[in-house]
Automatic annotation (TrEMBL):
Residue ranges of every copy of the MglB-2 periplasmic binding protein domain listed in the record: 323-392
UniProt domain Periplasmic binding protein: residue ranges: 32-257
InterPro entries: Bact_Solute-Bind_Prot2, MglB-2_Peripla_BP, Peripla_BP_I, SBP_2_dom
Pfam families from the UniProt entry: Peripla_BP_4 (PF13407), Peripla_BP_7 (PF18610)
Cellular compartment(s): Cell envelope
Protein name: Substrate-binding domain-containing protein
Gene3D superfamilies reported for this sequence: 3.40.50.2300
A single MF term (Gene Ontology): carbohydrate binding
Span of the signal peptide: 1-20
Family statement: Belongs to the bacterial solute-binding protein 2 family.
Organism: Bullifex porci
């Protein structure tokens, strides 16, 4: 009897030691901290300096970021604007004939790298860049309109923050546009926005000046339709299908046990073992562990190529084993993510045999996402889109075990 009891105690002690030590090798269970993790759309970074948070990016060897080249995107938007003006009729653009092109600028989030890059790209193209993305810091520039050089003045730049504290807010843009139209009148010759949602919000203002060109960014379905209808002058596609697919493909590669360069090339810049490959151009930035999609300008000459419903034919049904992924969206009300990114994710995830669970925040409080970032052990991998770019550690704290 004593011998039996002793053996039982020894076995119990051994089992307790295994669980206490949390040994994945001993239990056959992968700990949350060792699972694949992809940040997307909002790159972990300092909201003031823009410096990439490499401590978070090096959380484990299966941590990556998927997004797009923000600086290049800002430059594409700037070029889109100057190309439009170069072909425009000076008499129509300069509404009050004062020899000055005045514009107003909708800024998404002063602490967001993408917003900063777009503001910089716009101001550099128009010569109003004064070394800062601060809403109040611009200088007099110049631009060629129909072969004639005009002075350029940023009448006002403003961050579009909603009454609930959410950024990139379309309703705030509608209100701001109404105020600008009253305040500046015919001095406004052009409207520029850091995204389509705010641009479309401006167009909703009851006193929006008819015929004034307006530019957005994102190539959302409603914006593309607006270009076709002659209401929006241009936008920039950040290749949402390439981004959504790359987010899922990097996770798929990691879940399949791929390592090294195979993680960010297979199925992305070269075919994977299932024959899939993203068609749009995508690059890897090793210093940031980032997979970046390219950008392209959209205007009245090519908008039909970007109409809704077109998906990447290079991604087909795979025979990979099914895996579960928990994915967060920082704001359920974000126009780009809700109307473009999520539908793309929901289209491609089944093709890669990934079962997605999507939870969404309110765009204001990080807790609105974190409170839903739960039951982590039920998932094989995670994809995180934060409310604030410096909040990565809050999520990583929940993945420590």
């Amino acid at each position: 009897m004593k011998k039996t009891l002793l053996i039982a105690l020894v076995v119990l002690f051994a089992m307790t030691s295994v669980f206490a030590n949390g040994s994945a090798e001993a239990t056959g269970v992968t700990l949350n901290k060792d699972k694949p993790l992809v940040f997307f759309n909002r790159q972990p970074s300092d909201p003031t300096t823009g410096a990439i948070d490499m401590a978070s990016m090096n959380w484990n060897d299966k941590t990556y970021y998927v997004g797009f080249d923000a600086a290049a995107g800002g430059a594409v938007q700037g070029q889109l604007i100057t190309d439009y003006l170069a072909k425009a009729d000076p008499a129509k653009i300069d509404r009050n004939g004062d020899g000055v092109i005045g514009y107003v600028l909708c800024i998404g989030d002063v602490g967001h790298n993408d917003s900063k890059a777009r503001t910089e790209g716009i101001r550099k193209a128009l010569g109003t860049w004064n070394g800062s993305t601060d809403p109040t810091n611009s200088k007099e520039g110049s631009v060629v309109v129909g072969g004639k050089t005009f002075k350029v003045v940023e009448l006002e730049g403003k961050a579009m923050t909603g009454t609930d504290g959410s950024t990139w807010n379309a309703n705030a843009a509608t209100e701001a546009m109404g105020g600008w139209a009253t305040k500046f009148g015919t001095q406004i010759d052009m409207v520029v926005s850091n995204n389509d949602g705010m641009a479309m919000g401006c167009l909703q203002a009851s006193n929006y000046p008819a015929g004034v060109p307006i530019f957005g960014y994102d190539a959302n379905a409603d914006a593309i339709e607006a270009i076709g209808a002659g209401k929006l002058s241009g936008t920039v596609s950040q290749n949402v299908d390439a981004q959504a697919t790359a987010t899922l493909q990097v996770l798929r590669n990691l879940l399949d046990g791929l390592t090294g360069s195979d993680v960010y090339t297979k199925g992305i810049t070269e075919p994977d073992q299932y024959g899939n490959q993203i068609s749009a151009p995508v690059a890897y930035w090793a210093d940031q562990k980032a997979v970046m999609a390219a950008n392209s300008g959209v205007n009245s000459g090519n908008w039909k190529q970007y109409t809704a419903g077109t998906r990447d034919a290079g991604v087909k049904q795979s025979t990979a084993p099914a895996k579960k992924v928990l994915l967060t969206i920082y704001n359920a009300g974000d126009n780009f993510l809700s109307s473009s990114y999520i539908p793309a994710l929901q289209y491609y995830a089944p093709l890669l045999n990934i079962n997605l669970t999507i939870v969404q925040g309110d765009g204001q409080n990080e807790s609105s996402c974190l409170d839903k970032f739960t039951n982590l052990s039920n998932f094989d991998a995670y994809a995180i889109n934060m409310v604030k770019t410096n909040s990565a550690s809050n999520y990583l704290d929940l993945l420590k075990y």
